[in-house]
Write a structure and sequence with these properties.
The protein is an alpha+beta fold. Helix content is about 35%, strand content about 25%.
């Protein structure tokens, strides 16, 4: 789930507007009646509370699981290298005890193996994760699984902006009146990506979009800021 996996594909930030429109259309059009879109109903801000700047999922419902997956995935992927202190807060507050040690070890390994990235962020590089769509794969017995279609966008004062698309799989468990992370992993398969991401490469086929985005819905924005 870390930036070292991102192949550097040059793209202007202006393309994010095109991406957002594509993502919204893909999420709305790919969800059949009776799936997560209908069950979601639009998660309200009450599904999430912020503790010391860290999102915590406090609603044990389908909409709550989707909302918290959005927040956990984006926070984890934005902070693992860029803001280790906030990443540690996330791990400590909402990762299961078994997964905390694994997540810390993986983050330390990535930072140790990517000194140039660490230096770049200290020198003004910034990154943001954007959730385009997500799907509730399972829900019940105080557990949930969510697949997220997301983009990572990176820019800096000296280098060209670039972005890359991912499918991220999250396993959640409800305990102590909150959703806890049992695992967050980027899927080891190609994520759907708009052709503009590839420029001189062959775009992924429509079949890839149809398969991977089936049942996904676009997230509902507009929750109160922390």
């Amino acid at each position: 789930m870390y930036e070292r996996r991102w192949p550097v594909i040059a793209a202007g930030l202006v393309a994010i507007l095109t991406v957002a429109v594509i993502a919204w259309i893909a999420g709305r059009s790919s969800a059949p009646d009776g799936t997560a879109q209908a069950e979601d109903g639009g998660a309200q801000p009450a599904a999430i509370k912020f503790v010391d700047g860290v999102p915590v999922g406090i609603e044990n419902s389908r909409a709550g699981a989707l909302a918290v997956a959005d927040n956990y995935v984006t926070t984890a992927t934005e902070t693992a290298i860029q803001d280790p202190a906030r990443y540690e807060q996330l791990v400590r507050r909402v990762y299961t005890a078994d997964y905390q040690a694994i997540a810390r070890r993986d983050a330390r390994k990535v930072r140790a193996e990517s000194p140039e990235l660490v230096k770049a962020y200290k020198n003004g590089r910034q990154g943001v994760a954007v959730v385009a769509a997500r799907r509730l794969d399972s829900f019940g017995d105080d557990r949930a699984r969510v697949t997220t279609w997301r983009a990572g966008v990176v820019w800096s004062p000296t280098d060209k902006p670039f972005s890359q698309w991912f499918l991220t799989e999250t396993r959640l468990r409800w305990a102590s009146e909150r959703w806890l992370v049992e695992r967050i992993d980027d899927a080891q398969r190609a994520a759907p990506a708009p052709p503009i991401r590839y420029q001189d490469r062959t775009a992924l086929s429509a079949a890839t979009f149809d398969r991977e985005l089936r049942g996904m819905t676009a997230p509902i924005y507009g929750a109160a800021a922390p």
